[in-house]
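Hi there, hope your week has been kind to you so far. Please have a think about how the structure follows from the sequence. I've dropped the whole record in just underneath, so have a look:

_____
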Amino acid sequence: MLNYLSAAKALENLYIELMEKGDEVPVHVVNDLRAGRSLANIWLQSPDDAETASKAMSALERVEMNLLALAEERVNRAYADEWQARIAEAYKESFEPAAKKPTFVAGVPKGNHWVRVETKDLFEIGNVEQRLRERGLTIRKQDDGFTLIHGKKEDVTGFLGEIREEIRQNILSNRKVGV
């Protein structure tokens, strides 16, 4: 498997060297480099995602092609060949996929969906506790100013959708009144 993040770092190093030599790199190449780096970071979170890998590879190939052409034109062929070899090695470097963050939360039964909401925001909305009970959701205030809500996934998402819609309606009605 190719290591897109390592390749992006190698391309960034080539870009920096070219800039230090006083060469200007076109803006579209810099934008592609940023996009490739971002996509490589996203890919690293889920290395089995073929679509993200494809997008990262495409952006990095465009950057590589442009930077190597600049290196050959403004420095020399040997310099460009040396960098091409470095970039090829960077793609081959081994990597460790990011560890998946645990989804376990103490006190939440296995299989329950959960969400943490800032307490002060939640209780500004009317009859929240009654709505939670109606849906069979469990609520627990936490010491850090958040409230943990858990239960069946469809109940949690339904509750959040209901609250989101109420907030949206309040914002729209306040705009109409001129608040």
Q: What stands out?
A: Residues 7 and 88 are 8 Å apart (CA to CA). Residues 4-92 form one domain. The first strand starts at residue 113 and ends at 118. The first helix runs from residue 4 to 20.
